[in-house]
Amino acid sequence: LLILSLSIWVTAQCQMFAAVCDNHTLRIFLYSLIFFLSVFGNLLIIVVLTVNKRMRTVTNTFLLSLAVSDLMMAVVCIPFTLIPSILKDFIFGAAMCKIVAYLMGISVSISTFSLVAIAIERYSAICNPLKSRVWQTRSHAYKVIATTWVLAFIIMIPYPVVSHLQRVQRVDNSTAHLCRHKWPLATAEQTWYILLLLVLFAIPGVVMIVAYGLISRELYRGIQFEMGHKKGSSDVKNGLTSTLSTGSDDGDGCYVSQRPASMEMSSVGHNKSQKSDRPRSNTSEAKLEAKKRVIRMLVVIVVMFFICWMPIYCVNTWRAFDNVSALHALSGAPIGFIHLLSYTSACVNPIIYCFMNTRFRKALLVTFSCCSSPCRHRRHSIREHEEDAMATAASMSKFSYTTVSTMGPC
């Protein structure tokens, strides 16, 4: 209803400018779609992670912070960017100009810091499991999240200071207002945008590339090891057998979990050996596929981060050093779609980090099936059934394992 009301209101305001409205129809539709997907997806994540106690892991704590910041980004950034862009007038007043600029910067900062925290947490849990087990607790996650929020509030203090409502004269001699940043010195503006480029894009991007690259290397080593082990097992299947540990594996391909190979003479018949090899082979294939899926997901995470955020930070830096040429090349629809691309991360993050996670999807179904069922006994039985099912799910949101990779540290 909110999206529909927003679209109707903007369309009604645009009736005075029919030609302009025709040019902005696609932009209105895309902004509305991204807004709806962002709000709906992040609200679902907040509800599921809040209601389900079993989902309150270290990684999911960071995902909850990420969902809150993405929800704030969608609510604050999208409407207050679209409406002034369409109307060519910031109609919300001078106070909202400062508040909106401040909240925009905070939401973007928290979202980026959360992505970095998730990458570091996953790297530590997978590549250094023994060391990470000592400090990776929910209390530590709460401290990190509190630090990122406080840091974001402090870093973005210049935005409400330099944001002002500027009065401009239209072609038809009517008066309009624009929310603009007025810096005391050009060097101050250039320094600020270079700082943002480094702190909120370049450094986080490098950290994510390194962390997920090392994780992918560890998973690739696991794939190579299992493929080699599978080939070796096929050569000696009628003689010696090798025993892999499968009891504590969560099946998400995040660890290369194995016990020392135990070699023993086969004293059983050929038919029994074939029957025992069949489930082991299926488990090995599932592990390999899970590892490959995780690697592909990590690549998608890094690529989407750069696609969403690189254009807007490059444009802001360009504006700081050459505002005239930047406005001439990007004013109107181009800058509107560049902003939209950055806001797309608010709806992409829930899909990549949560909805692609089998464990989260199961918890989502359990949550809403329990809400619609008045029987608490049924709710309890469903949770117990799902707990067993989720133990073998392909999960990227939980890395609290008891097995350690024998491939060595990353």
TrEMBL record:
Pfam families: 7tm_1. GO terms for molecular function: gastrin receptor activity; neuropeptide receptor activity. Residues 41-353 form the G-protein coupled receptors family 1 profile domain. Residues 274-285 have a biased composition (Basic and acidic residues). One of its GO terms (cellular component) is plasma membrane. It is a multi-pass membrane protein. The chain crosses the membrane at residues 28-51, 63-87, 99-120, 141-161, 192-215, 294-313, 333-355. Residues 230-285 are annotated as: Disordered. Keywords: Cell membrane, Disulfide bond, G-protein coupled receptor, Glycoprotein, Lipoprotein, Membrane, Palmitate, Receptor, Transducer, Transmembrane, Transmembrane helix. It is found in: Cell membrane. InterPro entries: Cholcskin_rcpt, Gastrin_rcpt, GPCR_Rhodpsn, GPCR_Rhodpsn_7TM. Residues 235-248 have a biased composition (Polar residues). Receptor for gastrin and cholecystokinin. The CCK-B receptors occur throughout the central nervous system where they modulate anxiety, analgesia, arousal, and neuroleptic activity. This receptor mediates its action by association with G proteins that activate a phosphatidylinositol-calcium second messenger system. Belongs to the G-protein coupled receptor 1 family. This is Gastrin/cholecystokinin type B receptor. It comes from Periophthalmus magnuspinnatus.
